[in-house]
Structures are given as structure tokens and as C-alpha cells.
Design a protein that fits this description.
Elements (H helix, E strand, L loop, with lengths): L10 H22 L4 H18 L14 E4 L5 H10 L40 H14 L6 E6 L6 H12 L5 E7 L8 H4 L5 H8 L2 E6 L3 H13 L6 E6 L7 H4 L13 H15 L9
Parallel strand pairs: 1-2, 2-3, 3-5, 4-5
Length: 292
């Protein structure tokens, strides 16, 4: 299967993309004074590697038939995906200021009918992996060599429909399906492990017939290795990457805040959060991008 045009992007450049994605997300959050910003900060590294290492797409032709598909099962993560789509040039930067506004192409919950690059309307949790299975099977029957990536949450692992899809994918030998779990141990009613625990997650998916990797989802080098291995695997089976992430990553006062699902950010804290992301990047030897 063909490699994407960005496949050889240096590690440092991927880390810079993640830095930009965090800033885009915070800028959008500041527009409405709210948003699922903890998830966006936590999953930014995963999205950077997805869009600038793994996925093959054309930024000016988001419906190009030869593209890899990226499905956002978790509709409330839309602010995170918009940030990645802006960084990828699929959504214009100037639309960032319209986030959540009337007539915007960036509604607060992701909808495929509105946003370029948004493959499905998520939000009814537990449906994304099933849609991904159907899409991957459809591409197989069209003799396409494209991949389907599906980002889902650890909370969705409590949905029966997720496991029905997990059981069917190996049956159809869907080696063009790569699932990604944002495992941040947070959902609306509290820590995921307390709402409905899912121990031995690697062993469970392996028992279902998946190729499984579990990595630090905030370590770009580890993510690169995992995504490359998933794409290059020659076994006729679906692949899953379980990414352990920290909500609020790179903003210390949000990382440590007591939170469940929706971080409350006071009006004066948006600029402080952006400054923290800038300071973190500068502290790692990066150059602050004032344009974003």
C-alpha cells in the first residue's frame, strides 16, 4: 500500500505540528469560552502523527477518492480535529474564529455535512468503529488500497456496538483498518476505569484477532513507530493502537485540574493556557509561532 506524501516528515516537525494543533484548539476555545479542550490538548500528538505521518490526502480536494479516511467517532472531540484540519490546510485558518457560531462550518460537535475533511458525524458514541468496518470492507470490495483510521475514546469501550465491530473486523480480514483509542481515563461520569473498567485491554483485542500496540500517546516518537508498524504490517488482520494520553497536556494548570469530562476554563485563563503552550514549546527548543 502506498505511503503518504508526508511519510518522511522529521520528528521535530511533527512535534511542532502538535504544538500548532494545541494553539489552534485553544484559540477556538477562547472564541466561545468553552469547549472540550482537555481532550484536544491530550490528543494533539496523535493527530499530528495521523495527519503529517500516516494519512494520505489532498488538502485542496478533501473528497479525493484515493485518500485515506480518518473517522472521528467521538463527535465532541471536533475542536481537536478542526485544529488538525486547519494545520493540514484543509480548513482555512481564518475560519477558526467562527468556531461554534451560527452558519459556521465548525460546529461544536462534528458533522460531516458541514466540515471539509470530516468523514462522519460522530457523537452517538460507540458507532464509529462499526462505520469504519463497513467503510473498510467497502474499500476492499472496490479493490482500493486505502486505509481507514478510526479515532475512538476509552469510554466507547463500554459500548456493546464497539465490541460487535471489533469481532467482525478480523472475520473480514480488514488489514486496511487502523483503530486508535484515546485512552485518557476520563468520561462524563468520572474516570473511565470507575464507570466501567476494561482491564487486560491488549489481551482482549488480541483474543478478538487484532494486531495490538499500546503506547504513550503523548510521545511523538513512540506514536510514529506504532503508526508505521500498523501501516506496514503484512498480516491480514485489523490493527489497533491504544494511546495513553493526559488531558490538558502541555498546560500544567489544566493537567492537574480536577476534571471529569469538560474542563472549566475561566475567561482570563485562555491567554494563560496559550502562553503555557508557547512556553512549553520554547522550553523544548522550539520557536514560538506568533502567527497562530
Amino acid at each position: 500500500m502506498g505511503a503518504p506524501a508526508t511519510a518522511n516528515m522529521p520528528l521535530r516537525d511533527l512535534e511542532e505540528r502538535a504544538y500548532h494543533i494545541r494553539k489552534h484548539a485553544l484559540r477556538m476555545g477562547a472564541v466561545q469560552g468553552q469547549g472540550y479542550i482537555g481532550q484536544a490538548l491530550g490528543v494533539a500528538d496523535v493527530l499530528a502523527v495521523s495527519y503529517f505521518r500516516a494519512l494520505d490526502y489532498r488538502r485542496n480536494e478533501p473528497e479525493w477518492e484515493g485518500r485515506d479516511r480518518f473517522l472521528l467517532s467521538i463527535g465532541h472531540y471536533a475542536i481537536a480535529l478542526y485544529a488538525a484540519l486547519i494545520e493540514a490546510g484543509i480548513v482555512p485558518l481564518e475560519e477558526r474564529e467562527t468556531y461554534g457560531s451560527d452558519e459556521s462550518r465548525l460546529p461544536m460537535s462534528g458533522m460531516a455535512s458541514y466540515t471539509p475533511g470530516m468523514e462522519i458525524s460522530g457523537g452517538s458514541l460507540g458507532q464509529g468503529l462499526g462505520i469504519a468496518v463497513g467503510m473498510a470492507l467497502g474499500l476492499k470490495r472496490k479493490n482500493s488500497d486505502r486505509f481507514v483510521y478510526n479515532l475512538l475514546s476509552d469510554g466507547e469501550l463500554g459500548e456493546g456496538s464497539t465490541w460487535e465491530a471489533a469481532m467482525s473486523a478480523p472475520h473480514w480480514k480488514l488489514d486496511n483498518l487502523i483503530a486508535i483509542v484515546d485512552h485518557n481515563n476520563q468520561q462524563a461520569d468520572g474516570p473511565s476505569s470507575q464507570v466501567l473498567d476494561h482491564p487486560e485491554l491488549v489481551a482482549k483485542f488480541e483474543a478478538f484477532g487484532w494486531h495490538v500496540q499500546r503506547v504513550d500517546g503523548n510521545d511523538v516518537s513512540a506514536l510514529v513507530a506504532a503508526f508505521d508498524a500498523a501501516r506496514e504490517l503484512r498480516e491480514p488482520k485489523p490493527r489497533i493502537i491504544i494511546c495513553d494520553t493526559l488531558m490538558g497536556k502541555r498546560v500544567p494548570f489544566l493537567e492537574t485540574r480536577e476534571k471529569t469530562h469538560f474542563i472549566r476554563v475561566d475567561e482570563d485563563e485562555w491567554d494563560k493556557a496559550i502562553a503555557a503552550v508557547d512556553a512549553d514549546w520554547a522550553g523544548r527548543g522550539g520557536t514560538i509561532n506568533t502567527a497562530i
